[in-house]
Design goal:
With 440 residues, the chain is α+β, with helices and mostly antiparallel strands. It has a domain of 94 residues. 17% of the residues lie in helices and 18% in strands. The protein contains 6 helices and 15 strands. About 36% of the residues have low confidence.
Length: 440
């Protein structure tokens, strides 16, 4: 059942093929002009010169000049344009010169190498797996500490990675071609991050990085919490935590629809780190067709305006992978499933990315995958939802509690229960736009 509203056809071309997607285009190179070590508190990031050009000093960031409008963060996570103070970028001192040891979000500042924060508590391990006082750090929701050991089971008998509490911790093994293995999580949790560029088309800070650990190197995306813009309708928590929560739910379904994602410290503070996925843009998943109805193998989403009084159908492929993703989106209440967030691979896998606006307590499902709306869930999906419901009452629920509010985790359980009871793909709601903008 297609969505009822009519939308402009932004980012798509008529004739059965989507316009080229740029959600994961090559990142623009950047270089840090001064490290965030106290000399320049905001750790400004500037554009790097093109290959072969002479390096020149980047101009200082002007916090009085808005980047994208009043109140937005500066490109270097220093002082926002509205004058509010930002985190301390590891210096222990805010940009206003205060040295309280408390960031503006209430968290404590790093220790400057002492192992003790300004409030007397111990600091994280900066990727070593051991704090400066010798104790091990938490796992950031991955089930693996930064030293490779698995986290305790909190009395459940099962660690956060699903292994039994008395199972020996795995050791590193050669890299695999299948994302989602323990090797990937170990790399993301323990690896050294080097920023190579920034994806400028993103609405929040998205940094393209190389991550290396014990001879293995891969690319990843790093989204520091300090680079997130406040959202009036998502006032609680942060986008990075919701991205990790979406990965954990995806893993619990067994569908592996979200690239490996962890929460950890990085060059610009705590943030989400996700394995980079090279997409195959030769696999069409979305299209605009000017026929009266979609061709076999396609599902209608919404009628789109294509100019000069003409309309066309926005359609998506009748693909089992997309159908699974539509169920996952309904579970996590995804408010932003755009076409550019779909990454098919040459190996035949499909990944969804950008899950920062998810898990709201109110119905905010906004997606391009409405083609199955009102249709019965597959037998496979019903079985997955049943197992997910049980997992949410156990270890998975405990892990999500560290990433989401109590109200959000309760709403998640209620959505799974409602989907099982109804037995159908959800229909677009009337109180919230059902199509994201722009759609691609």
């Amino acid at each position: 059942m297609p969505a009822s509203e009519r939308v402009p056809a932004s980012g798509l071309t008529p004739g059965g093929a989507p316009a080229p997607r740029t959600a994961r285009a090559a990142a623009e190179p950047v270089t840090r002009t001064t490290p965030p070590d106290g000399t320049t508190p905001d750790g400004t990031v500037a554009d790097a010169p093109p290959p072969g050009a002479a390096a020149t000093a980047a101009p200082p960031h002007d916090p009085a000049t808005p980047d994208d409008g009043p109140g937005t963060p500066d490109d270097g996570f220093g002082t926002p344009d509205d004058g509010a103070q930002t985190p301390d970028a590891g210096t222990g001192t805010r940009n206003d010169g205060a040295g309280t040891g408390i960031r503006n979000d209430g968290t404590h500042t790093p220790d400057g190498g002492t192992g003790i924060r300004n409030d007397g508590t111990h600091t994280p391990d900066a990727g070593t797996g051991t704090r400066n006082d010798g104790t091990h750090t938490p796992d950031g929701g991955t089930g693996i500490r930064n030293d490779g050991a698995h986290t305790p089971d909190a009395g459940t008998g099962t660690r956060n990675d699903g292994t039994a509490a008395d199972t020996p911790a795995p050791t590193d093994s050669p890299a695999t071609d299948t994302p989602g293995t323990p090797d990937d999580l170990t790399l993301l949790v323990r690896g050294e991050l080097t920023v190579e560029g920034r994806l400028r088309e993103a609405s929040n800070a998205v940094l393209y990085c190389v991550i290396s650990h014990e001879g293995r190197t891969a690319h990843c995306v790093y989204k520091p919490v300090a680079g997130e813009r406040p959202l009036w309708d998502f006032p609680d928590g942060d986008l990075a935590s919701r991205e990790v929560a979406a990965y954990l739910v995806s893993e619990a379904t067994g569908w592996d629809l979200v690239p490996p994602t962890v929460l950890r410290d990085g060059p610009y503070g705590r943030g989400m780190v996700q394995l980079w996925i090279d997409s195959d843009d030769q696999q069409p998943l979305l299209a605009l067709v000017e026929d009266d109805e979609p061709a076999p193998g396609w599902k209608a989403v919404v009628e789109a305006e294509v100019g000069e009084g003409r309309t066309a159908w926005l359609v998506h492929a009748d693909d089992a992978r997309l159908r699974r993703l539509s169920v996952l989106d309904a579970v996590i209440n995804n408010a932003d499933r755009k076409g550019g967030h779909l990454l098919p691979t040459v190996a035949g896998r499909l990944y969804g990315i950008d899950h920062g606006v998810t898990f709201h307590t109110e119905d905010k499902l906004r997606t391009l995958l409405w083609g199955w709306a009102g249709e019965p869930l597959t037998e496979e999906a019903a079985g997955v939802l049943g197992r997910l419901s049980a997992d949410l009452a156990g270890p998975l629920g405990e892990r999500l509690a560290a990433l989401l509010t109590a109200a959000e985790t309760a709403a998640l359980r209620e959505r799974v229960t409602a989907l099982l009871a109804d037995g159908r793909h959800p229909l677009p709601g009337g109180d919230w736009p059902s199509i994201p903008w722009p759609p691609v």
